[in-house]
Amino acid sequence: MSLHQRLRAATAAAHENLERSLDWEARVATLDGYRVLLARFRGFHAVYEPAIGAALGDEAFFAPRRRLARLDADLRHLGATSDPDALPGPPAPALADPASAIGALYVLEGSTLGGQMIGRRIAALHGFDAETGCGYYLAHGRRTGAMWAAFRARLDALAEGPDAEAAAIAAAEATFDALRLWLCRMDCTAGVSA
Ligand code: HEM
Questions:
Q1: Interval 26-40: pLDDT, tens
Q2: 152 and 112 Cβ atoms separated by less than 8 Å
Q3: Is 179 in the pocket of ligand 1 (CB under 6 A)?
Q4: What's 3-183's CATH class?
Q5: Residue 111 C-alpha to ligand 1 middle, in angstroms?
């Protein structure tokens, strides 16, 4: 099995669990709910992107996959007035090496796949597009397939042996768990104002 296949198999239950717990259709049905959800993602990316960037050490590869600026633009479009840097975030992950970074990035980058469908739904509901309120979800747009293919190629290039693969898988599992806890907490309107 390739590392991608192993990551996919190891996190399939976590993906299903997150998909079930997220309740995204109900949450994005109103602009308030959508803003709160984006603010939670913003807090998560603000903590995970620097950690992934530092451990990966390959900004040319990572830069087009950063989505913090898109989250900020979407929140501004939705009329959020709070300082985005003041939004709460989860605890920082311990990513010690490029393999762990790529495992965590697998989760965030994979979310752009289902995100296309979710983004199209939000865009239709609220009259948004990638420039107006839906930049986070629509993310790579028509380049989604190509970006995912390049990411999978990068995973396969990680052939550094079983320790690196185990680190990538452990980081992906931990990131899925952290994201589910962070997005599905009941008190997650804290720190969000319009
Ligand atoms: C923040 C939440 C989510 C995260 C972190 C996430 C993560 C991922 C990951 C890592 C993959 C790649 C699987 C692979 O290796 O092939 C993936 C694929 C996919 N996800 Fe999600 N996902 C999320 C939410 C959702 C939701 C809510 C849906 C359903 C509406 C969804 C639908 C899909 C679909 C359809 C694919 C496969 C796309 C394809 O193979 O072309 N995801 N997601």
A1: 999 999 999 999 999
A2: no
A3: yes
A4: mainly alpha
A5: 5
Structure tokens at 5: 């296949």
In this structure, which amino acid lies at residue 47?
V
Nearest alpha carbon to residue 99 among 52, 67, 33, 62:
52
> Tell me: the pLDDT tens digits for 95-136?
999 999 999 999 999 999 999 999 999 999 999 999 999 999
Contact in structure between 150 and 109 (CB atoms under 8 Å): no
Task: Tell me, using a 6 A CB cutoff, whether residue 159 lines ligand 1.
Answer: no
47 Cα: distance to centroid of ligand 1 (angstroms): 21
Reported residue count of the chain is 194
| 99, 160 contact by CB (below 8 A) | yes
> Does residue 80 carry a pLDDT above 80?
yes
